[in-house]
């Protein structure tokens, strides 16, 4: 860590621990230099970082002051999905979101795509170019079915950071995290079976259930604590649940990270009822906490957790590099992987492995986490300004996705239609439910620099949404009349 | 087409049509120049091509003579698989074949990998490198779910060459042909359903059946004509068959191309019984016939053929670029594609599209077809020399795979074990059957230049096989005693 980063961290910890409180003046540059034995420019850089992170502000001729953290006034409510297993619908709307031509001239405020213009990502393109230019016969041939040994070794080392002790042979490379989830679910469940999910839940996983004739049992979920263990326990008693599928860290779409104690309890619950857990950790490395939170897999002592992840959210989804650590289901998952796509593409794996090996990944994560945390606060401010005061706003602990809950009666599918003229799109909340609940909710993406254009688009979304709130109050039946 | 190619083709056609017969002397260089109005060097080059293709030989001071074609003396027998739907087994053996580390120091004589060192392939690596170096945000992002429009347009144009009239929207890009087959099968059949297949059949497809709890009904297959339409018709009358899966052009592993009349009849049969056909055409572009044979899809007037293909055998499997033209099943296949891996990787698609657009693909195919045809004849000669005279040998009409049928009682799984010491491996025939039939058969690959090392390896395989034939005769019960 650089000196200024160390200094910034020291100050940050003091703010976090209440040594300096909101409104307090922080040590002067000179005082800081003396105390930490650093140079003036280092001290200045440290303060610049804290400003960027929206923790302090500089007041001219006075010094640096701790400013109030941007936190939501209203969180989304704890969800209350259907109490029974359901067939998944919503495919048409998912398709509309995912099959857009990438260059269509529409501002996609709702997609799950990270910032791909980041300077710290450039070495990846260079590595890819170099590897492809080499063009050896091995690179164009089938890779090992389980994937490149180099990459699996890197993944295993990274996984120690989330509390997992894995061997490279415990990991299989997949074509994106989607394939990891898909083969995990197909390994565990057969048509007609029930899978319990957090709710709202990533639509990609819900659609896997649909495609395989499985039923989703959506479990009430707290926007700060994650899936309700109490409700899950009742469900496990009542229904023949074959697997639990959750995204417990930097959840998509809610942004929470389940507290460690609850993660531990979730694994214990799965053990008690002898069901498997499919854990989606694709945003986990983008947690704003240091060190990054542990996975459920870290508490898994009998191999029942199938950990699914990948580099789509940290590097780029176009690479299609994902992975799975399938625990005791390794053999079946290997078979499923083979029939699904055979071996994965060779060179993207090698490029990612080298990107990690050379330290680029760590550097890039550090940069992105800082950026996303800053963007979260800026977006929060914009949403508070432009949406009605009773809008529930999630407070993401990582990643780059924010969930808004508008007053009941507002229909975000219609919101999207109305936004079409402004060439703006959000992700309607109904995609994240088996039966199209959460129509009054929406997902926003804050990965991209919040330029004036983006800010204006957010303002516009807020404006249209506010109009719709007013209409919903005036004509409460409008929706069902349509 | 170059002038010498035209001249060579003219001569070749005359040989094919019996104008010149085996042993006949061909026109002298001078006569040919006069007749075709070409230069001496062109005429020489034309004869050089015919020599390479093992059609003529030069006799010093005399001229060029038509030589006997290298054709097998004994073809493999028409197969007689089980007469009822079976669960698929053999996964352990398939895994042993497909999960080899690519750099292990073993000569893989049985794998389905093309020549990846070809000079005509080099532009592909250059294109890939250039595209990756660009490293734009779009390239790293999710592509359209159906894949790159450019590539789909190119595929549609190529498909006219096999008699298909497709629109780019009729095509979805997949992660290799394996994914195309996998989603096609999952679209059509549910656990317990029966799928009819040609037999022997590509193990990758058989394993898809296994993974999805489907049963394979293996249909007797002729090594020259393909799947028996008579047997298939009986099967369709007797069993509730949900789909027919065949590889009718340059079949893997038998190498036949079904005659056009039989292809037409197969589609008509499927119509009569109202079942879908999953057509695997991955080797079709490598047919030795010009123009390349039509697909079943060319005769499909009601969208019941799901045509699966890709560039793994023509360019390189490490690219993982495949495609499917799913006919009337487009919507369900699109959903299956989404849940399977989401969008496919962006840049390999663009690289392949450009490779085709710039004429590299056509050039490369021409070169490879010439090479593979030559290699087939060389391998045929080697097999005839080193294997017992009663060995059935397929006569591939395209691609780079040859099927040998040893006398009954020889066990090619054991053959592989015995070859381990020589660091040589073949693909045992039992992989190509649901229940492990064809143990006395094996598949060889002739894509690679048949160097002295390869020739020696073939000799060694023949030697061990011949020993095993002798043992099988002496100890006919040895196998069941083990
Ligand atoms: C929670 C979650 N899991 C999995 C995926 C799929 O990731 P990939 O693009 O690697 O298939 C996504 C992407 O949107 C996601 O948000
Ligand atoms: C007949 C056949 N179909 C499909 C495939 C799979 O192709 P891909 O590597 O594109 O998934 C193969 C590869 O061995 C094959 O031989």
Description:
2 copies of one chain form a homodimer. In chain A, a hairpin with a 7-residue loop joins strand 13 and strand 14. Chain A has helices spanning 3-16, 29-36, 40-52, 91-98, 122-134, 137-140, 149-160, 176-188, 203-211, 229-238, 260-272, 330-341, 346-357, 360-386, 412-419, 452-474, 478-481; strands spanning 56-59, 63-66, 107-108, 172-175, 194-198, 215-219, 221-222, 226-227, 241-246, 276-280, 305-310, 321-325, 392-393, 401-405, 424-425, 427-428, 441-445. With 482 residues, the first copy, chain A, is α/β, with parallel strands linked by helices. Chain A is built from 17 helices and 17 strands. In chain A, the strands form 5 sheets. Chain A has a 7-stranded mixed beta sheet, with helices on both faces. In chain A, strands 13-14-17-16 form a 4-stranded antiparallel beta sheet, with helices on one face. A two-stranded antiparallel ribbon of chain A has the order 1-2. Chain A folds into 3 domains: 3-66, Arc Repressor Mutant, subunit A (Orthogonal Bundle), CATH 1.10.10.10; 89-117 and 362-480, Aspartate Aminotransferase, domain 1; 121-358, Aspartate Aminotransferase, domain 2 (3-Layer(aba) Sandwich). In chain A, helix 5 (122-134) crosses helix 13 (346-357). The interface between A and B is large, with 71 and 71 residues. The site of one pyridoxal-5'-phosphate has 14 residues of chain B, from helix 8. One pyridoxal-5'-phosphate is lined by residues 112, 176-178, 202, 204, 247, 252, 280, 282, 310, 312, 317, 322 of chain A.
